Amino acid sequence: MTYRLTKTAAIAATAVAAGLGITACGGGTTAGAHSASLATRTSATASATPSSSTTTKTPKATPSKAKTHKAKAHKSKAPETATARATAKKVSRDEVRPTVTTRFVTGTATVAFQTVRKYDSTLAYGTSRVQRAGVAGLETVTYRQQLVGTRVSTSTVVKRVVTRQPVDQILVIGTKKATPTPTPTPTPTPTPTGGGSSSGLDLSRAAMWDRIAQCESGGNWHINTGNGYYGGLQFSYSTWLAYGGGSFASRADLATREQQITIANHVYNASGLSAWGCAGAA
Questions:
Q1: Among 137, 154, 176, where does a domain finish?
Q2: N or C: which end of the chain has fewer CB within 10 A?
Q3: Residue 71 sits in the same domain as residue 89
Q4: What is the pLDDT of residue 223?
């Protein structure tokens, strides 16, 4: 705007100068007057124009445009900032959220053996014995594991392969009921009937046998110390039976004094007192 006003003023000044020149050369009073009038109007217009341009200066509008441009720029940046924040938030969540992976793991496990029970009628009731010991087997197990980060969250068996079969244990259980042991019947002791040999008893030398018994057993006719000799006269088991003691009792300590004296007389008749260590007591 200022450039146009300046150019107009220059044109007006040139026109005035040209009018003056024409007058000086004698071009006529009317043309000079016309030129002067034109110059005067032009000057007036030129004088009025700067005043109008002063009130409507363009630079005052420039800050308003700048503010509008900044506001638009701010508005255009707002969506970009929200998008950037959302992207950053998504990236942050992805970084915090652990990775879920799947893997397969193979291991070895034992296979338990079973116990087979058998019943035996020859084995006492309430007793048992192991006929064959059990042996555990082996198997290869494959697991599918799900990991959250480095931590195993689930583990599932997907395959089992038995590599060694287990051996069952055999247990024998007795069913035989115990038979009650019969009570042995005691052997009746013969009752002495007299002192003659005809009655089966021989009580001759009774006093001598009493003295020998006192030396051999302290006079206890039913003694059994477990040393292999029995009764008052300390008969061995074999001697007692060899001389007929079995007709009275199975051992000398189970027989009466009279019966032991009778067998002692049988021995005495065969070999004298050589069988007794206390023969001197006779």
A1: 176
A2: N
A3: yes
A4: 93
One domain, residues 73 and 52: no
Residues, the chain: 282
Same domain, 90 and 110: no
pLDDT value, residue 76: 52
Q: Are residues 124 and 70 in the same domain?
A: no
**The CATH number of the domain where 265 resides is what?**
1.10.530.10
247 phi and psi, to 5 degrees?
A: -75, -15
Confirm whether 146 is domain-assigned.
yes
Q: What is the pTM of this model?
A: 0.33
Q: Could you give the count of Cα atoms lying within 13 Å of 175 in the half-sphere of its Cβ?
A: 7
> Whole domain around residue 128: which residue ranges?
100-176
pLDDT at position 177 is 85
Alpha carbon separation from 234 to 53, 223, 260, 273, 279 (Å, rounded)? 170, 8, 10, 13, 12
Spans of the chain below 50 pLDDT: 1-6, 16-40, 42-59, 61-62, 73, 189-198
Q: Are the C-beta atoms of residues 79 and 85 closer than 8 Å to each other?
A: no
Say what the pLDDT of residue 60 is: 52
Task: Flag whether 50 is in a domain.
Answer: yes
Q: Indicate if 119 and 171 belong to the same structural domain.
A: yes
